[in-house]
Request: fold
Amino acid sequence: GGMSAAHELIERGFEVEVYERQNIPGGKARSIPVFESLDDRGSKGVHGPAIEKWRQMKGYLLAPQARRPWLPGEHGFRFFPNFYRHIIDTMNRIPFGEGKVSDNLVKTSQVFLARFNDEGILLPARFPRSLKDIKSVLDYFLKLLSGETRVPLHEVEFFESKIWQFMTSSEERRLHEYEKIGWWDFVDAGQRSKEYQNFFAHGFTRSLVASQAHLASSFTVGKMHLQLLFGVLDPTIPSSDYLLNGPSNVVWIQPWLNYLEAQGVKYHLNCTVQSINCSGGTVRSVMIENEGSTKEVSGDFYVSALPIERMAPLITSGMRDADPQLGHMEELAKNVTWMNGIQFYLTRFLPIAHGHVIYLDTPWALTSISQGQFWHDFDLSKFSDGDTRDILSVDISDWNMPGLNGKPARECTRKEIADETWEQLKRSLNVKGRQVLRDEDLDHWFLDPDIQEEPEERHRLINGEPLLVNLKDTWRLRPKADTAIPNFFLASDYVQTYTDLATMEAANEAARRAVNGIIEAAGSQATPCRLWKLHEPEILQPLREYDRVRWGAGLPWDERLMNIALSVLEVVQKTSGLPSGKINSPSNLTDSTASTNTAMQHNTDGAPTGAEILLQVSKQILSTFGDESDSTVLPDVGQKEPSGIPVSLKTDSVGPAPANLPRRRGRIRIVQKP
Reply:
């Protein structure tokens, strides 16, 4: 959030100084240089000197094909779902050569679901545009509905009914009712089969939001489900998922820093916030430590971009008196978990899938991306000793579950983490006699250096940059960007935002909200920053409005809304030539007494269920496919992809675009510790 706040402020004429803890700005999004010659595998002791060389080696200024003495490492891979609006808008305004940084975003086309000792499921990361895409979707439905995924059919129907319930619920009900319910309870996982629990409850929450299904807020998990779903179902969106086409620092962070400094932002690196001086309901100054010395800095306004676990200890009694909401910081800071990355540098090109891979059965909730296929302008043989041909970047999202070695990740050494992660990957990919990952192809690995050994307890790790997770009933703990302290603002991912989930998108939105607060407090005529709500299809708005009225009257969500969805399946039933009959009602869908070992669940009158209809239709369509499965069905013409990345169907925004204004006299101090 610190760079985002500086960007918006400097473009609106404010004087801005940033105090950054790291030697490399960019927070969790920054690249990290990895030096094989130093045996740099993530150790803070080894990694520190490597970081110190960053500013001197100027590697980020080299042409793409020039040799670099380092390998690109990272805290964790970056991905940009199509519903990201705020960070993309900022990237549109960062120069990069003759274009802009957002030009460095590239589309993915696939998502691969890998399983232990079993065939994976390959899905398109977009609305199907070719017969091949359609076939992969139908293959998925066929496996899901025929029991190959081992999820009983009636439980698949039940999960679909819960997604429909969330989809047609009002924002008021989602926030005030579902936010207090864990995802596990919302999808009734306790009454379902183990396969249902793993596929629909644990899988998404562990891998994508790094949380436990029992504790994760249904408000957050449900919204993320919908946004990812809408991104695939919208035919005007070229892809639901985008990646950078090179190391983050080279194609994004360093050009951004160059732009900010050229505009007049003053950066102070290697700085740590020691204390915030607040008296009389106003922040007077901030104490900053830099290279062993401490100094007091002051400004007209102060923006904190520190993460919650760093910010909470700095809240003083005077700050709590001025804004009681800040008193919740200490409790909120407990809701952090670990989601850190490890990179495997391979000696052969290995594009596992053209997009992200989710390893459903891995104890450590692994996800990965094969980066070489997306870095077209970067010859990896030009990095370090020249042996690297591909990078398999992996995120580890569960550090508490025992691995195949019987130990949770946080109790392993760094070497044990690398070995166990590699083994879980092999168990997921080397199936049915295939050998995708080979030990002889592994040249080097690098673990996020924020994973450090506990000084007081050997072989126990601590995390220098944990991740806030949205647990149930914690929205009330989260502050707003503009606090009750008139010159103090927050620009971090724990702030209440439309985005909600703790991501770089949420941090950027929080920064915009903070800047809007400064504009108002300063009495400035500058244009406010734009804010976007998460978009949902307008066709469902009448149903959400209907539920809003019911919510206001104290009534529950109306199960009769399920009939609307079921009526669509009835139409499919009739047009498919299947026997007519009554499709499952919500009461049948929620019947947990049905056998979980039965793949097909019929109504009492013998008529097929909605899921059975989809199964039969999928089989019929698949039977018509021939060798022409790569043929294009939906061309790219007419698909919207403005300014580097597609946006949702409707722009729900607040505030016009920024205007160029003369430099103002307001001095802004931004403190950030990623």
Observations:
- The chain is about 30% helix and 20% strand.
- Residues 37 and 487 are 48 Å apart (CA to CA).
- The longest strand covers residues 271-279.
